[in-house]
Structures
1.
Amino acid sequence: MRHTILSTTAIALAACMGMSATAGVRHVNALGAGTGWYADDVRTSAGVYLNGTNSSYQPYFQGALASSTADDALIAQQLYFTDTGTASGGGSGVMVMDGTTGNAGKTSVRYYGAGAGIGTLNSSFSSSFRWYSDPYSTSRTVALNFLVLGNNGLKYSMSWLGTGTQINAWNTFSVNADTAVVNDNGWRLYSNGAPGSAAGAAKSLNGWFADATYGSILSGATVVGQGFNIGSYQRYCRVGIDWLESSLINNGDRVEFGIVPAPGAAALIGLAGLAGSRRRRN
């Protein structure tokens, strides 16, 4: 966990060796090829799609929209990382998904890794994440999402909404293939290749695998990416994602979002603590 207290000796040694102080944890503080996390469906308050040169996942647009560094800058206004607690987090490092002043914006982010698919969609899937909901005039529940290459060659977007969101508080959501639909919240399927009325239904993941139309399409399909979104028409909504655990990402180990000290800086902090401890003992 982020708030576990470690000895300064352990921190210094881990930093000097170029390792995370917590085994298995991956820290993410930027978008792009360096982390495998990308913006893919970010829209301005006027509903204009943004395709950044570095921050966007280019295959998502399939050449339909030119990329630009100007769009990178605009994306960074809606999707960014912080450890200050000034936005969505109360002092804990987060990836902020910020709403827009208009009423047609959207923010979406996914882990695509190297772009060859991150795993297979099946009944062994499980995921948990911790997030903060800021007390804006309106609010959104963060959706967990997939981009899936179906067994029929078509791409499908799937989004899961949990229940019981607390505003101005931390929320921890967990889901697996058996998680039941509650208050019409569950996995929803979206695609140009899916009829809207049928795809609009919410089901558990195993429910989709058993579906007469989509079961053979989705079961065992390739998951191109997994991430988060706060939906279209997200006016005055802002959330912060603290961490994610997924059976499809980082071997199931935790992904921590937010700015972390560089290894050299962490080592200096640890050594300074050791020095202070020695002075107090002398």
Note: The two ends are 33 Å apart (CA to CA).
2.
Amino acid sequence: MSRREWPNLKLVPGAAPDGSMTVPMITVVIPVYNEEGILVSSVLSLREQLKELGMSFEILLAENGSSDRTVELCRELHEKYPDVDFFSVDEPNYGKALKEGILRARGTIVVCDEIDLGDMDFYRRAVDRLLAGDATMVVGSKVLAGAEDTRPLFRRVATVVYNTMLRALLHFHGTDTHGMKAFRRDLLVGTAGRCVVDKDVFASELVIRAEQERQPVVEIPVRVVEKRRPSINLIRRVPNVLRNITRLVYVMRVLS
């Protein structure tokens, strides 16, 4: 896949946020929190798989509030591999870390991934859709027809309930907002900057704002096989999620 296959692509010198003269085709943004057990192996595996795509890339680790050796391991990976970078935010906050990572991303295509997923089939299909020009964002849906979600039943039900709430309260037209997504940085970095809710609900706001701003958002089914149990218990997350959904409804239905 060459640049010529994407006629609307703005891949020009100095296009990166940091003012650098060249940009990678893909930036992978991965929030990480207390991931010392799988961080190194996951990043090394992802690097090898990204090489097979035949496109330039960078992996940006968005560390947020870890209390184990995650920061140290991020630094070691960065020092050893030029295509791996990292930064830290000062609290355990997935949404804040993901948003900052998107704003720092230099790639023409930004892929939001999870350290325990790394589904390269999603990368290939999403990049194909973006290069074809029929979408500016591709969302990997865990509940769309054809998806395979191997998570425990309780978490699968929680996903359905959560997205049903988003459709009822915010007129969301999709089936999923969390998990993997890919998009054109030039068209959606501004959308990310306008998001105001953080933590678990940031990813939802990003997708819903893109949809409401009439960006072409498409979903593709994905296969979800996690490498480890979630680092934060789902039950503990519920009160925070409900508060942030309430805030999101207020922001998007009252203030917008």
Note: The first helix runs from residue 39 to 53.
3.
Amino acid sequence: MSLSIDIESCCKALKEAGSKKVAFVYHLKIKDVDGYDKWLTASRHNGKRLYRVKADPVARKGMVIDEILIDEFSSLKEAFDFLLTFEHSLKLVCSECTILTIVPEPLITFHVVKGISWLVRLFKGITDKGVPSTKWRAVNTDVWPDENQMKVARAQNLDEPLFVYNLNKYKPVAEYSDINKDGKKVSGKEAYDRYAKIAGFELLRRGAYPVYGGTPVCLFGNREDCMLSDSWDHFIFVRYPQRRNLLATIESDEFHKGEVHRDAGLERVAIFMGKEG
């Protein structure tokens, strides 16, 4: 495995985005658990390690990962200095290591959303109990979790917090099966935003909300056949208080009203689910 770093393209993309901060989203397949634990300890004081999530044991488009890490750095130089120091030792303990570089959205954005979630839950909250129905099935698994992912997700501890990783690619123009009432075309992003508005309320009233996200800049360390090698538009990381909250959400009538917009707006997604490490 070789982490070939295109510093020039990353610098250019960051400059265009007007951002100094950069984040690494690691997708790891671990072969030496003890060695990996030592790497985590040695590297934790560099940058800011925001999240460590153990992924559900199931493949997405042939890609199986054990953990997702998110590190944020104050500059691109700090980020790549970190890799120069810790890349080799990480390479030794992982059979696969793919790193997505993103321009992170301001953390204040997610703090505000967390506050909104608290208010919505206070006045419009809902408590999910018992075992959610298993009726929901995705028609288009390019933009939804596939059946195997859902089967594994439902088999995990429903009481534990859940993290859902979403990497989105939007269609240039949304593709609805029925023409919009006003006859106007909308972008894939606009269609997805319609979905997010509907689904987002169902999340917020359950205490779930995005905790991190940003714009993908570049990818390195991946296999040539890795699904993440495609270009992407947006990364978003969502936390649910309990896994049952996600399962109950996708079975709700209100959520189903938004599905058509997601199907119309998204070209493909990379999606993983997991628990806090």
Note: The longest strand covers residues 209-220.
